[in-house]
Amino acid sequence: MRTKTELIKIAKLAGKQAIAPYSGFKVGAALLSKKGKIFTGCNIEVSSYSLTICAERVALFKALSEGVREFDCLAIYANTENFCPPCGACRQVIWDFARDLTIVLINKKKEQREVKIADLYPDAFDEQYLSGLEHP
Ligand code: THU
Q1: How many domains does the chain have?
Q2: Cα–Cα distance for residue pair 67/22, rounded to 1 Å
Q3: Alpha carbon of 101 to ligand 1 centroid (Å)
Q4: pTM metric for this prediction
Q5: Residue 94 and residue 125: Cα distance in Å, rounded?
Q6: Tens digits of residue pLDDT in 20-40
Q7: Residue 28: CATH number of its domain
Q8: Cα 15 from Cα 126, distance rounded (Å)
């Protein structure tokens, strides 16, 4: 079984692949599936800024695209004093696809904070609001 320490190391390594020429802010993510497979992600910035994608979504989309649907833990590493909590867009994606996982935030001081998406993203929008639609 993979340990949390291992996952954190992998998230830190993943951040080295970040492409962040505009912000200089590099983020690494490592997503552990329930079956013990790890998917990594880093942020990838695009010259048309809004096309940029965060490390968390890269990791999650890689896993989903390979058919993996059940997740245990997501480690997010930023080489800064502060933690890097997932942005709003990532919170929505995590809520939709990995509601129960534990999120571990790690900063450059090697401090850790564990959070659940339900606490980060209360009163979330999701599929329940799409049911009962009346189409004109
Ligand atoms: N970023 C992430 O990769 N994850 C987050 O949770 C927050 C922000 C990236 C996007 C962009 O490349 C840079 O950090 C600055 O916003």
Answers
A1: 1
A2: 33
A3: 20
A4: 0.95
A5: 12
A6: 999 999 999 999 999 999 999
A7: 3.40.140.10
A8: 29
